[in-house]
Structures are given as C-alpha cells and as structure tokens.
Amino acid sequence: MFPNLKNPVFTDTGELNEMSRQIRRDIINMLLISKTGHSGGPLGLADIFTALYFNKLSTFPDNPYMNERDYVFLSIGHVAPVWYATLARRGYCPIEELKTLRKVNGRLQGHPAPLKTHGLPGVEIASGALGQGLSVAAGAAIGLKLSGKPNHVYCICGDGELNEGQIWEAAMTADHHKLDNLTVIVDRNHCQIDNRTENVMKLEPLADKWKAFGFEVFEIDGHNMKEILDTIDAVKKVKGKPTAILAYTKMGRGVSYMEDNYKWHGVPPNDEQGKVALSEIASTKFGDFVDYYNDK
Amino acid sequence: MNFINRTENLFVENLDLANPELKESRRGFGDALVELGRTNPDVVVIGGDVSGSVRTDMFRDAFPERFISVGIAEQDMMGVAAGLAVVGKIPFASTYGEFATGRPFDQIRQSIAYSEMNVKICASHCGFTVGPDGATHQSLEDVAIMRVLPHMNIITPVDYNQTYRTIIECSKIDAPFYVRFYRDNSPNYTNSNAPFKFGKADTLYEGTDCTIIASGLMVWESMMAIELLAKDKISVRLINMHTIKPLDTDAIVKAAKETGCIVTCEDHQKKGGLGGAVAEALAQLYPAPVEFIGASDTFGESGKGTELYEKYGISSRHIAEAVKRAISRKKL
To answer: In chain B, which residues have their Cβ closer than 8 Å to the Cβ of A116?
Structure first.
C-alpha cells in the first residue's frame, strides 16, 4: 500500500491523526480476529507510534536494519498490536498479515519476538517480561555513542512497568553515561492490569523521580499530535543528559467504554463491543485491512 | 600393561603432576580481554563493580572508553549488554557466577538467549573454591540454569590457558555464550598450542575400564584420581568436556561403548549440570552405568576449597571410589 515511502510520510497533523485513527481501527480488527490480546494500551499509544513512524523516525521499511535507522525498543511488549499495525501501515510487512496476530506459525507473536527467531522486521529484540527495555536501549545508546553515530534511541515504557526495579537501574546508567541520544517515552495512562497505578504501587511524583535520576523531563498530552511532534524535536536538542517524555494518555483512547478503564488492559473486545468501537473511531481514507463483520 | 595413557600433545611440555604451574583462570579471562581489546575494536566490557575481582580491570585501564560501568546492577548489566549487541558491539559482561546467572536469569532469557544476542556472559568465582566466602557466593547451580536456555552456549575451561583460548574463540562466534571460571590459583596444564575446538571434547587420557567425563577444576582432580587408580591396575579414560552446550554426544557414546561405564565430575550440583547432560544423552543414545560426582542437592559453607572438596565428596579420592562403583555396575 505504501511502496518506497518517503521519510517523513506525513507532515500535516490532520493526516497524521487520520493515520492514527486507522491504526486504532486496525488494532480493533486485529483483536476481533485473534480474540486474544491487549486493547487498552495499544489504543492509547496510537498517536505516539504514528508521530514516530510517520514523521519523526529515521526508519527504512525496505531495509529495516539499515545502520542509519533510529532505534525503537518497546519495553512494554504487551502493547505489540499498536506496533504491528504501525509497522504494517508503514510498509514493514503486508497489511493483510495483521490477520495473523497471535496465530501459530506467525510473526505477530503475542509479545514481540526477535527477527532471528520468528519476529517481524523492525523489531530489534524480544520484549514482554517487563522492565528490561530501558537497559537494552541504554546499551544501544552507549554503543552508538562509542561509534560516534548520530542515531537516536527511543524506549517506550508503560507506567505500571515502572514498578520494576531494573527500570531505575537503567535510569542510573542512562544518567551516568550522559545518554542524550536516549529518550524514554512513558505511557502515563494511570492504569495497570490490577487497578489504577496509584492503587497498585504509588508512582507520583513521577516527573520528579525522573528528574532526580538525571533526566530532562517533558510532560505532554500523549494524544495531541502537534505536542508529540514538537516534543520529539525538543528532546533531540537536549545535550549531556537523557530525556524522558511523560505522555499523559488514556488507556483505550477512542473507544468510549474502554477509555481510562484499567479493566481493558488485557482483553479483546467481543463482536458486539468491536462493532461499537469501530463505529466510534471514524473510518479513514486508508481503508481497513479486513471487513470483519461481512467477511465472517 | 600401562595404566596411564596421557594424550601428551594436549598438555604443557614436561608437566610435573606433583608441582604444576599455578595460575588463576580468571586471569586468563582478563589477559584475553586485553588481547581482544588490541585486536577487535568492537569488543566492549561491562563492569559490575567487581572488575578487580573478575580481572576486567586490566581491560578497563587499557581501554577505558570501551569499559562500561553499570554499578552493582546485574539485571541492568545483561540488558545493557544486549543493547550493545543490537548495535554491533561484542559485549563481555562479567561478575561472580551466582550474580551472573541467578540474579539476572529473566534478563538473560529474554534479552539475550531468546533474542540470540551476541553477548558473552563470563562468570568468575564459580564452584566451591570461593571457599571462605560461604554458600551465598559459591555458584553451584549456574551451569544448570544456563543449560536449559535455548540458544545458550556453555564453556567451562579447566585452567588459565584454556580460559584464555575460550575467550578468544567465543569472541569469533556470533551467539550468546556462558563461560565459567574460577577465582583461585589452580594448575595450568593444558597446551595452548593444541587445537581448541568449541563443542568438541578433549580426550586427555585413553583408558579401557571406565571413562571420567569432567569439567573445570574437576579435570585436574580426575587426573589425580587416575594416578590413584593406576596403582590398582584400573585403566581410565578422561574426557575434558569443556563445552557443556552444545554437548559432544559422540565422545560420550563412544566412551560408553568402549569403556562400559561413566563417572561425571563437576564443581557444581549433580542435578542439571554436566552430570545431568551426560545422563540425558546416554539414556537416549546408549544406556550405561553412570556415577555422579558433584554437590548432592546441598549448599556449601565456609572453609578452604580443599576442605570443602573433601567434605562434600568431590575430591580425587571420591572420584576414584566412584570409578570403582561404576565398574562394579557394569553388566559383564
């Protein structure tokens, strides 16, 4: 659908928002087909993934492991559907492949798998067991600096994931090594699987925590496309220290009955709920990869 | 008949069994890293605050920009190593055996083994010989928990020379490795000019009555046992199974066929380590009596290494007894 994509693909926030809505529709359709998987987190991250892959990243769908690429590490592996939909829309795999989410012999594993094993091009490393991605991202950032390369490294973390101690080990490493080529994007949706984050394990004052660990912190509305784009520009200008974007998002963004409801962390919509979801996310000029209700 | 049939070319020249050269295997690791630092600009070393102990301080002093300190944070260490591998570096991550495997197991599993990252996990201070430090620091389970991980390769060199060569060899192979070595001085007796083949066992002694398959420091203990057994006119083959994964099953089956019984020896739990691996192979390929020398489902305690080898039943005397037991179990 998008052969030989230019980079960036869209500069207009209206077009980016249109793509982000399509990715949300793709997520719903993927989950309807797979009948298993996470809904809330992926929907909440659609705007950020769109901003990255369709505007800000140096990324090469035809040659995913080009040395010139920016690196994306998805520490919060269970939001894989938003990554897969984005990668497919960006040309990393056939869009029809989205039908294979969580299916045997497929590349769209329940949590991102490494390419060498059976993963999707564009995935750098396995994730799923939480808390590991920021260490990996820090290692990549250190390696790039050693080689004198300008690539930027992004690590996407959940807020609940910040309960893991390894995140703060990695934060110390990022600060100690002055990794200004590393940006952690925290999906601050205040929800994790059991409950609201502050009920499971208190995170606030979260911005102060990252600041105390040596990060330059940016707090943004994770659904405001212009703010996301501007902030990604801003983090690249910071020198001498790592950056953190606290992106305030809503779990289940775009679907009224899912929004801000932690119970939608790990379950897919049923057929009835899916119909409502698709009706609430306006269809786009890009077109769905499946007509789920008529194809059944 | 001669009951000692040493494969001389695998040993240093003029080896004096009673008075061998003593050298730290961890020093072999440190010296090899310095050599790699000189010859391969992609090699980087990750420090977990014990660089003096694991002998990475020499690399740190020679190549400070390629020495990456992560502090006392083994979970982060394994993730950082994986990230360095993603961007094409060859990272060596090193700390004590227990902290290199037990603490960061999940990180190794997901970010290194499953992801097939080119990370070399190098564990010093393994086995009973960290002695006085006591059970918390005596890594006796590390081989078992690395062995269950798909894609993980495991080498347990026996001395300084072999540790040095292991490090050089594994740097050339794009795959995850776990390399296990020791703190204390120990006999340095392998010939550094003989071919070292990853995945191919070395038959150090030929013999006909039984085969000892040993790893690490227990290879030397086994040599001492063979000297004892020769006095009783027992001829023993000795295999240095330096590569535990992938396992040289051909050498194991050949030994079982030709000598009829096996004794495994390791400074590690009997369960899940070399002994377990050999038993699994024989059960499937060529069932034969096996006796196991190793920790018997127990933690260690403080004491001298030699005292612990005696108390926990893994000294040369115990190996000799196990050989006799194995021979008695053969169906004649």
So the answer is: 115-116
Rounded to whole angstroms, the Cα distance separating B66 from B228 reads: 48
pLDDT tens, position by position, B150-203: 999 999 999 999 999 999 999 999 999 999 999 999 999 999 998 889 999 999
Closest listed residue to residue A158, CA positions, set A56, A262, A13: A262
Report the C-alpha gap between B128 and A19 in whole angstroms: 60
pLDDT for res A4: 43
Q: Is there a contact between A146 and B107 if contact means CB atoms under 8 Å apart?
A: no
Asked if A125 reaches chain B (Cβ–Cβ under 8 Å), the answer is yes
- Within chain B, strands assigned E span 5-6, 22-24, 43-47, 67-69, 90-96, 120-124, 153-155, 177-180, 185-187, 202-206, 210-214, 236-240, 243-245, 262-269, 290-295
Strand-pair partners of A235: none
For the segment A131-168, what is each residue's pLDDT rounded down to a tens digit? 999 999 999 999 999 999 999 999 999 999 999 999 99
From the list B79, B89, B117, the residue facing A166 with the nearest CB is B79
Task: Please state the pTM of the whole predicted model.
Answer: 0.97
Nearest C-alpha of chain A: how many angstroms from B30?
21
What was the pLDDT predicted at A244? Answer: 99
How many Cβ pairs within 8 Å bridge chains A and B?
117
Min Cα separation A147/chain B (Å): 9
Out of A128, A137, A142, closest to residue B68 by CB: A142
pLDDT value of residue A6: 58
Which residue out of B74, B221, B266, B291 is catalytically annotated?
B74
Buried b / exposed e along B201-230 (16+ C-beta atoms within 10 A): bbbbbbbebbbbbbbbbbbbbbbbbbbbbb
* Nearest-CB residue to A126 (from B75, B88, B110): B110
Binary contact (B76, A129; C-beta < 8 A): no
